[in-house]
Design a protein that fits this description.
Layout lengths: L13 H10 L10 E5 L2 E5 L8 H14 L10 E3 L20 E3 L1 E4 L2 E4 L5 H23 L4 H17 L6
Parallel strand pairs: 3-4
Antiparallel strand pairs: 1-2, 5-6
Helix pairs in contact: 3-4
């Protein structure tokens, strides 16, 4: 049998905490770039002035992952290029990175953002989700659930969905 040199059970509570400890030494190699890490997610923010150094930053992360016995899953990596909607001349986006999909919307910690920095898709999604929850509440009321319990469920489900990340908007 082969020796196990490292292991974290997928979905375990120790996984994100272990990643936070491991990722503390991962830093950007280009001035102006930022690495935003949360639990087991990471976002690399590269300003337009550094757009030609994206591959080097990605290679740095790959090297760090290999050194720490981790795997960078490029199939899960995506790139989004943000641009201003009211710009007088269109921007020239950088050439696509190999093995990285370019997207026009991205979900960051549960909030959907478009490449025009709009949260309208997120708001539409929240409204749809709340409408489904309201239907479930109507069904519970029809089945005879107490008004006070319905209000508790409403606050726990609907209000929580509406308030999530609202301070960031």
């Amino acid at each position: 049998m082969a020796d196990i040199s490292a292991s974290i059970i997928k979905g375990s509570a120790i996984g994100p905490a272990s990643y936070v400890v491991h990722a503390s030494d991962l830093v950007s190699i280009t001035a102006g770039n930022s690495l935003c890490k949360y639990a087991d997610d990471m976002y690399v923010i590269i300003p337009a002035s550094n757009r030609l150094l994206r591959s080097a930053e990605l290679d740095n992360i790959q090297t760090w992952a290999n050194h720490n016995n981790l795997h960078l899953n490029r199939a899960k990596c995506v790139e989004i290029v943000f641009s201003q909607t009211r710009r007088s001349r269109p921007i020239d986006p950088p050439p696509p990175l190999p093995d990285i999909t370019r997207v026009s919307t991205i979900k960051i910690l549960g909030v959907t953002i478009t490449n025009k920095l709009s949260v309208s898709d997120h708001i539409s999604s929240v409204i749809r989700s709340c409408a489904l929850s309201l239907h479930a509440l109507r069904t519970l009321r029809h089945q005879g659930m107490d008004q006070e319990l319905l209000q508790t469920v409403y606050r726990a489900v609907i209000i929580a969905k509406l308030m999530y990340a609202s301070s960031a908007w």
